[in-house]
Amino acid sequence: MDFKIEDIDFEKMSGLVPAIIQDQNTLKVLMQGFMNKASFEKTIKDNKVCFYSRSKERLWTKGEESGNFLNVKEILLDCDKDSLLIKVDPVGPVCHTGSDTCWDEENKSEGRFLHYLESVLESRKNAPPETSYTASLFAKGINKVAQKVGEEAVELVIEAKDDNEYLFLNESADLMYHYLVLLQYKGYTIADVEQILRERHK
Ligand SMILES: N=c1c2ncn([C@@H]3O[C@H](COP(=O)(O)OP(=O)(O)OP(=O)(O)O)[C@@H](O)[C@H]3O)c2ncn1[C@@H]1O[C@H](COP(=O)(O)O)[C@@H](O)[C@H]1O
C-alpha cells in the first residue's frame, strides 16, 4: 500500500468510500462494498476485508459467518482518492448466493484452486487439527516433507513411461500437493515462485 489512511477522502461521500474487490489471480471483480475509516483500519490490522455494512449499520468482516474471508494482497487508492481497489485471495465463494462473484459469474482460473489449497495448507500449519495428514507431515519435519516430494516425483516418472492417464494425473496431483506442502513448510508461497518465473519470462 503506497498511500496513508489520511490520503483517503472519506468525507466526499458522508464518511464512506466504495471498495472494489478484485481477485488477485484472475483480476476478476468479485464484489463491491463500502468502507469507513474504522473498517479500513480493521482491514489493515486483520489483513481481511472489513466493510461498513449500510444495512447492518456496523463493521462487517466479509466471511465472519461463512468463513469465506477475503485475504488482502494489495490495496490501491484511485486518482480522486475516493475509491479503493483491493486485490484479494478469496477463501471461498464470494457472494452470499454461493456464486464466485456478486454478478453470478464463475471465477475461471486453473490457478485459483491452487491458491485456495495453499491457504488451507497454511491454516494446517498454523492451527494443526489432529486428523489432518498435512499437519502430521508438518510435525515430522523437513526431512519427511522433502522426502515425500522426492518419492512422489519418482512415482510420477514411473507413470510417465506408461499410457495410463488416470495414474499419471493422480501421481501429478500427489506431487503438486506435496510440493505445496514443502513450499509452505519453508515459509514460501506460489507467488514467490511465480515471481521468479515472471522474471525469467522477461
Ligand atoms: N491434496 C491432498 C493430498 N494429496 C495426497 N494426499 C495424501 O498424501 C499421502 C501420500 O500418499 P502415500 O501413499 O505416499 O501415503 P503414506 O504411505 O500414507 O505416506 P507416508 O507414510 O509415506 O507419509 C496420502 O495419505 C494422501 O491422502 C493429500 N492429503 C491432503 N490433500 C489436501 O490437503 C488439504 C488438507 O487436508 P488435510 O491435511 O487432510 O486436512 C485438503 O484440501 C486435502 O484435500
UniProtKB/TrEMBL annotation:
InterPro entries, A to Z: His_synth_HisIE, HisE, PRib-ATP_PPHydrolase-like, PRib_AMP_CycHydrolase_dom, PRib_AMP_CycHydrolase_sf
Matching SUPFAM superfamilies: all-alpha NTP pyrophosphatases (SSF101386), HisI-like (SSF141734)
Keyword set, alphabetical order: Amino-acid biosynthesis, ATP-binding, Cytoplasm, Histidine biosynthesis, Hydrolase, Multifunctional enzyme, Nucleotide-binding
Compartments in which it is found: Cytoplasm
Highest taxon in the source lineage: Bacteria
Main location: cytoplasm
Record bears the keyword Cytoplasm: yes
Name of protein: Histidine biosynthesis bifunctional protein HisIE
Gene that this polypeptide is encoded by: hisI
